[in-house]
């Protein structure tokens, strides 16, 4: 893949050859080139404009499903698995940065790139893997929310699962009115605040936390869990 362009201020082009013929895709549409606004001053408004998409991405890491899973394993293995979370988070950050850069440069998301670069059979396999990954990620989200509702309101778990599914369908239906970044940011901050309050209540041993983060150690069933 190569990047070509001129010094006349025109949009650059991406030239790529894969399992298809040579094509040129502009970084931006020529009709939109005069709509790009370069921010020449610093302000909180501009900062929040750039941070908006970050809140959407953070949902993958700050959610009831992740917290519920982490709390269960933390109660069972204490600080033994913290270093795994640190390594996985760093790896996820690198992948997110690469995906973001790819999208900014080419104007396409990963699915579009796969469709363009790979044959149909490979795309079908990738689609199946993606569907399995989505289901695997959604299961802890649903169970985490269901258990939270069960503990808060003493509602049967199966009813909580149905309520969780219903709330998801409602949020999906509201997408036709646009993505509510402020609502998502509010939910993320609420979850983070609850987590910090829980952390203050638990008062973990700082020395043991640092040891678990930076000194890899696995004992007993922790090895099986890592695999």
Description:
The protein is mostly helical and 227 residues long. Helices cover 66% and strands 5% of the residues. The protein has nine helices and three strands; from the N terminus they run βββααααααααα. It has a three-stranded antiparallel beta sheet with strand order 1-2-3, with no helix packed on it. Helix 3 packs across helix 8. The two termini are 36 Å apart. 4% of the residues are buried.
* Order of strands, widest sheet: 1-2-3
**Terminal Cα separation, in Å?**
36 Å
- Largest sheet data: 3 strands, antiparallel
Number of strands: 3
Strand content: under 5%
Low-pLDDT residue spans: 1-33
From the alpha carbons, calculate the radius of gyration and give it in angstroms.
Answer: 22 Å
* Mean pLDDT across every amino acid position: 77
H and E string: EEEHHHHHHHHH
Helix amount, in percent? Answer: 55-70%
Q: Supply the number of helical segments.
A: 9
Count the domains.
2
Structure classification: mainly alpha
Shape: globular
Membrane topology: Multi-pass membrane protein
Family: Belongs to the NRAMP (TC 2.A.55) family.
Keywords: Membrane, Transmembrane, Transmembrane helix
GO cellular component, one term: membrane
Topology:
Blueprint: E1 2-4, E2 13-16, E3 23-26, H1 44-58, H2 64-77, H3 82-106, H4 110-117, H5 120-153, H6 157-173, H7 181-202, H8 206-214, H9 221-226
Antiparallel strand pairs: 1-2, 2-3
Helix pairs in contact: 1-7, 2-5, 3-8, 5-6
């Amino acid at each position: 893949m190569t990047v070509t362009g001129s010094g006349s201020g025109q949009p650059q082009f991406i030239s790529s050859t894969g399992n298809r013929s040579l094509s040129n895709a502009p970084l931006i549409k020529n009709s939109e080139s005069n709509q790009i606004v370069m921010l020449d001053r610093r302000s909180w408004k501009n900062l929040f404009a750039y941070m908006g998409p970050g809140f959407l991405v953070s949902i993958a890491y700050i959610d009831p499903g992740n917290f519920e899973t982490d709390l269960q394993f933390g109660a069972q293995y204490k600080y033994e698995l913290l270093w795994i979370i640190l390594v996985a988070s760093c790896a996820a950050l690198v992948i997110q940065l690469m995906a973001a850069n790819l999208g900014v440069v080419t104007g396409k998301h990963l699915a579009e790139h796969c469709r363009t670069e790979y044959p149909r059979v490979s795309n079908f396999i990738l689609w199946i893997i993606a569907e399995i990954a989505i289901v695997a990620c959604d299961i802890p989200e649903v169970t985490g929310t269901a258990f939270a509702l069960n503990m808060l309101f003493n509602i049967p778990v199966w009813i909580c699962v149905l309520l969780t599914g219903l709330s998801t369908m409602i949020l999906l239906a509201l997408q036709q009115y646009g993505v509510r970044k402020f609502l998502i940011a509010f939910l993320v901050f609420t979850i983070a605040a609850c987590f910090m309050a829980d952390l203050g209540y638990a008062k973990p041993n700082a020395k043991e936390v640092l040891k678990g983060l930076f000194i890899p150690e696995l004992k007993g069933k922790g090895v099986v869990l890592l695999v």
